[in-house]
Amino acid sequence: MVSGVVIGALTPTGSVDMPVMRRLIAEAHSLGLSVTFHRAFDVCADPLAAFDDILSLGCERLLTSGHEPKAEAGAPLLAQLVALAGPRLIVMPGSGIRPSNIYSLFEITHAREFHASFAYFSA
Description:
The protein has helices spanning 18-30, 47-57, 75-85, 102-109; strands at 4-7, 34-37, 61-64, 90-93. The protein is α/β, with parallel strands linked by helices. The protein has one domain (4-109): Copper homeostasis (CutC) domain (TIM Barrel, Alpha-Beta Barrel), CATH 3.20.20. The chain starts with a strand and ends in a 14-residue tail after the last helix.
């Protein structure tokens, strides 16, 4: 069973496409699905304005690398977003999360959830 969707839409100028997102979120919620705004956030023109838009849309999560290619580089913005979000939105760091850096990212950002792809290799 599917419990949520990961979606995101930006305008050509790099802001959150509010009309499109409202329609997509309404459809997702009508199906009982939670909504995560995806890493389109990381290429938006103004991350703090986009963050406010995402909050106002009622998304449950934001998947982001902190407006950088990798979450480690975006850790300062990730920490700021986690603090700004409080209990209203889960900020989920993603991109380049590895066993070797996840704890330091947790210490810096205080994020409650992380997105990672860990490969298992046996010797």
